[in-house]
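Our preliminary data section would be incomplete without showing what the modeling component actually yields. Below, a chain of 105 amino acids is followed by its predicted structure, encoded as tokens that our downstream tools consume directly.
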Amino acid sequence: MLITTTPFIEGQPVREYKGAIYATSILGANFVLDFLAAVRDFIGGHSRAYERVLARARDDAMKNLIKEAEKLGANAIVGVDLDYNTVGPNAQMLMVSVSGTAVVL
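Predicted structure:
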């Protein structure tokens, strides 16, 4: 599956638009991650634990987006957009939303 953030792929005209597709992934953080992130905020540096959680959520959302495109018979997704948010009481859950347009090249 060819995936791009651009609205078209140079040299590969879109033969058919299958429609807009969407996918999300929501993962809960935990007390240990929250504590470690607070320490990192205080002393500075990257929160590798949160980076791993966000990467896993992004990968899950992209896999789900590909499944949606395949259901429609598409062989590519153009105009992909990723958004990161927190949800739930006290924003303890991490959400990745992804959207794009399923097409046949």
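The chain is about 35% helix and 35% strand. The chain has one domain: 2-104. Preliminary results of this kind motivate Aim 1 of the renewal.
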